[in-house]
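stage 2 :: seqdesign
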């Protein structure tokens, strides 16, 4: 998969590890929308994302920018994952 857009990142406040973890989360959201991912993998990545981005307003801002760039909704993807049984694949 190749992206023709830039992920929304806070390079001024996040360290390299945090940037890698957020990029991984965005990648899993894309994959969930394109081919499916394991629920546990997505929820683990989201949990890490929330450690880096604890603010709901910042999460919404990043989610909105990500959706503008990619066409995929962080909110809808995580909502679907929450409604998916443990051990199942999340596919939108």
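stage 2 :: out
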């Amino acid at each position: 998969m190749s992206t023709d857009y830039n992920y929304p990142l806070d390079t001024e406040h996040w360290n390299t590890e945090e940037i890698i973890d957020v990029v991984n989360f965005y990648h899993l959201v894309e994959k969930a929308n394109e081919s499916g991912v394991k629920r546990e993998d997505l929820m683990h990545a989201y949990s890490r994302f929330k450690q880096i981005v604890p603010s709901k307003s910042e999460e919404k801002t990043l989610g909105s920018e990500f959706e503008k760039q990619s066409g995929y909704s962080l909110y809808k993807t995580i909502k679907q994952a929450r409604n998916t049984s443990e051990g199942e694949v999340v596919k939108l």
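stage 3 :: structure notes
- The chain has a mean pLDDT of 93.
- The longest strand covers residues 37-38.
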